Amino acid sequence: xxxxxxxxxxxxxxxxxxxxxxxxxxxxxxxxxxxxxxxxxxxxxxxxxxxxxxxxxxxxxxxxxxxxxxxxxxxxxxxxxxxxxxxxxxxxxxxxxxxxxxxxxxxxxxxxxxxxxxxxxxxxxxxxxxxxxxxxxxxxxxxxxxxxxxxxxxxxxxxxxxxxxxxxxxxxxxxxxxxxxxxxxxxxxxxxxxxxxxxxxxxxxxxxx
Length: 209
Prior knowledge:
Elements: H1 2-18, E1 22-23, E2 52-54, E3 57-62, E4 72-75, H2 91-115, E5 120-122, E6 128-138, E7 143-145, E8 152-154, E9 157-167, E10 173-183, H3 188-207
Parallel strand pairs: 1-2, 4-5, 4-6
Antiparallel strand pairs: 2-3, 3-10, 6-9, 7-8, 9-10
Helix pairs in contact: 2-3
């Protein structure tokens, strides 16, 4: 029995190691399998990406020594969402399509406000390309309950996306992340705007020298 248990543990070990992540300031560990219950597919980001955890970002990787100072970041139209058409008459997919249209301008505005001439933002060309896609979205499904005649609206909206910055010429990944936000009694669009500001500050802190 002991030998059988040991063999089983050896068989499972590579799976556990491959799916692990480190921390942004610690050791980075490669993710060879899907993470976040299968929503994060490392293949979409390119080779050499080893995800870590950071404050305000669920999974992130930055190329060591990355410096975008003096560069132009081309913010491209995002890819079509890969959200299934199931449930609520396709409302989740429709919500993801709305986010796909509205979120990139939020990122562009947030980055432009903090780069302050240290790097540029463009909608047409650049040294680096920023693109993303939504991989999950949940449309609003609120409910109300009353206490003494009052009521409270609860919203369970959420959105999950991939985002990467790559070298415009070679396609080499420079920055990669996967993140989810929730709209709990706050419009999801506001949550996305808040996160865009957080991401912009993160870029300034980690990718500008």
